């Protein structure tokens, strides 16, 4: 049962469940599943080593498993989850956005971004989004369904494989950062997102062996779910998509604010920071003449003063036909200066991907 006050979302009637996959299961459940197929339980570790250690889901690449068993294990525990519809690249190939079609025809997106000192992947946790933020392409499309744990994890596996195989210019590289900032509200798909974090960070072969400190989980402010996350005792970074420091405007920009107000959200974020020891990221999309006024910068600075937080200002990547657009450069500079004056760390996000429908949800919308 959901915690009191927690939002729940129901998949559309008739939506088919994603097929069971190795990445949906913890190690004990994998051994049980393999045994149910009439195989020795140790085959589960072999399968895990291939998928999580070598990113190999093709049974022809499993020389240590008998040929007679490979197809059965592959069909039951490593079924195809998603296929590439298309890739779109920019920044001389350093940014690559992928549109995926899931088993039921649903479309989701992920983005791989290569920088001189790191490689970041932005992944989706839902197909669509139920938060209804008016300036967001995904929010305006509505929610199709939650992704399974395996569908979330497989975006990362595919990205790691692409980096290893040199599909992204710059030579082989390793993925260092993962941000749950693609399609969907991660904390509205809490159980599966938490399962994905476990698979991503458990040591090989139980998982991919990544660091929790390299993972950022974004939320619009589902306060009960943030408190649940605190109890998980994770070292992931929390990012709060705030976008307005006052309830009057935030009720419009982020409709879930009608349930949990700005101060409640920031109090929960502060509690997460204190428990995890990690600085919270405050995401703030600067929208011309809507939320970029000097007095709102001043209010934001006063709200965050003394909090272990960093403001990430995002020049809005406008969606086609939208009335929302990015702030004027002079208003952006003034916003930064005011936050600096309050002693609040602030940066302006590097804008990538505008020429490839970079805003979350745009590629899927154009395909539809």
Can you describe this structure?
With 368 residues, this protein is α/β, with parallel strands linked by helices. It has two domains: 22-77, DNA polymerase, domain 1 (Orthogonal Bundle); 82-367, Alpha-Beta Barrel (TIM Barrel). It has twelve helices and twelve strands. The strands form two sheets. It has a ten-stranded mixed β-sheet with strand order 1-2-3-4-7-8-9-10-11-12. Strands 5-6 form a two-stranded antiparallel ribbon. Helix 7 links the parallel strand 8 and strand 9. The longest helix has 16 residues, at 149-164. The radius of gyration is 21 Å and the shape is elongated. 46% of the residues are buried. One of its GO terms (molecular function) is metal ion binding. InterPro entries: Aldolase_TIM (IPR013785), Elp3/MiaA/NifB-like_rSAM (IPR006638), Methyltransferase_A (IPR040072), RlmN_N (IPR048641), RNA_MTrfase_RlmN (IPR027492), rRNA_lsu_MTrfase_RlmN/Cfr (IPR004383), rSAM (IPR007197), rSAM_sf (IPR058240). Specifically methylates position 2 of adenine 2503 in 23S rRNA and position 2 of adenine 37 in tRNAs.
